[in-house]
Amino acid sequence: MDIRQLADAHIANTYARFPLALVKGQGCTVWDDQGRAYVDFIAGIAVCNLGHCHPDLAATLAEQARTLWHVSNLYYTAPQAELAAWLTAHSFADRVFFANSGAEANEAAIKLARKYFKDRGAPERYRVVSMKQSFHGRTMATLSATGQEKVRKGYDPILEGFDYAAFNDIEELSCLVGPATCAIMLEPIQGEGGVVVPDREYLVQVRRLCDETGCLLIYDEIQTGIGRTGKLFAYEHFGVAPDILTLAKALGNGLPIGAMLATEQAAAAFVPGAHASTFGGTPLVTAVALKVLQILTGEGVLERVAETGAYLRGHLERLQSKHPVIKDIRGMGLLIGARMDTPGAPIVRACMEQGYLINCIQDNILRFAPPLIVTPAEIDGLMACLDNVLSGMEQ
């Protein structure tokens, strides 16, 4: 029984998997069990920002594994404290809560926003306004916050207390914010919703609305954070800080870690016993996450993202001028989407057959989120592949 058969026989059938059994990775390349190489332009869905099996991360993991794995959050550990200090020093935040995933980080953010007002004698302020086409996770609270019917389907009744506004529409959002609203929750750039970048003034208007109504502003930067857009956090492009921000994905470059960052004022609602996570911020994952951030900011990786992203986008725009099936190119840094006027799944599969891994979201949007260390030569290879695939479709 090979890997595919073994998995299909014993793992819950929640993924429509490609017929690839990947066994090895290095840099921007992964290999299957037949020895065939694939250049990875999805990076575990915007996770492996420093590529696969980065030698310095592997060394950090091995060293920490020989030192201390887990002691619970009843005790202090150096890697966790140092990572929290780094994150607060490089962001708007004063406090960090560590979790295991993006969904857990978003759960913490929702709980914190509700408790913030409960502690201030305003328990009626519990509703969260999130965005249509947003994605915040698969737990009951985070799928309730997610503004996509297909994600919520089959789980009714979803949790009460969530409203949905059209992304990038300040008027619709303003109409939904009322005396019962505790927070506005959004992704600065919608990832799963189609790589949608808002107008530059939109986040300014959202921040102003929060300030005027007294509600908290939560940014979900699980996909856009840790350098993906060319800055450490996507909100920096807009110059608008939140009260609470969530991270996961690339923070551990593949190790499971989530983080909720908050201002001192907002974080004060979390007191001992208010929230917890058994595996949140273990020495093993926080040591690696800290090394991720040090490499990202100390070795010029972050500074190259804008240049490499512009290179990728420019090539996609040239393909667009040649292939009318590409309707528009959107995104920022190395989070780029190409909207097609045809289903994207066949294109993804054809690229995979030629040795390139890309992704399709919302049925017709090709998403490109390679490791931030991707080279121009690797981009050239994908563009030649995509050109060949689209030319074949047009015949």
3D structure, described in words:
By secondary structure, the protein is an alpha/beta fold. The protein has a domain at 56-298: Type I PLP-dependent aspartate aminotransferase-like (Major domain) (Aspartate Aminotransferase, domain 2, 3-Layer(aba) Sandwich), CATH 3.40.640.10. The chain is built from 15 helices and 15 strands. The strands form 3 sheets. It has a 7-stranded mixed β-sheet with strand order 4-10-9-8-7-5-6, sandwiched between helices. The protein has a 4-stranded mixed β-sheet with strand order 1-2-3-13. It has a 4-stranded antiparallel β-sheet with strand order 11-12-15-14, with helices on one face. Helix 3 runs antiparallel to helix 12 (283-298), helix 4 runs parallel beside helix 12 and helix 13 packs parallel to helix 15 (376-394). The model has no long low-confidence stretch (mean pLDDT 97).
Radius of gyration: 21 Å
Please tell me the CATH architecture of one domain by its name. Answer: 3-Layer(aba) Sandwich
Oligomer: single chain
Q: Count of DSSP helices?
A: 15
Top CATH class of one domain? Alpha Beta
Task: Name the helix and strand elements from N-terminus to C-terminus, one letter apiece.
Answer: HEEEHHHEHEHHEHEHEHEEHHHEEHEEEH
**Percent range for β-strand residues:** 15-25%
What is the tally of beta strands? 15
Sequence stretches where pLDDT stays below 50 over 5 or more residues = none
User: What is the CATH superfamily of one domain?
Assistant: Type I PLP-dependent aspartate aminotransferase-like (Major domain)
Biggest β-sheet, characterized?
7 strands, mixed
Shape: globular
CATH topology of one domain: Aspartate Aminotransferase, domain 2
Spatial strand order of the main sheet: 4-10-9-8-7-5-6
Secondary structure class reads: alpha/beta
Estimate the mean pLDDT confidence.
97
Distance between the termini: 40 Å
Estimated helix fraction: 25-40%
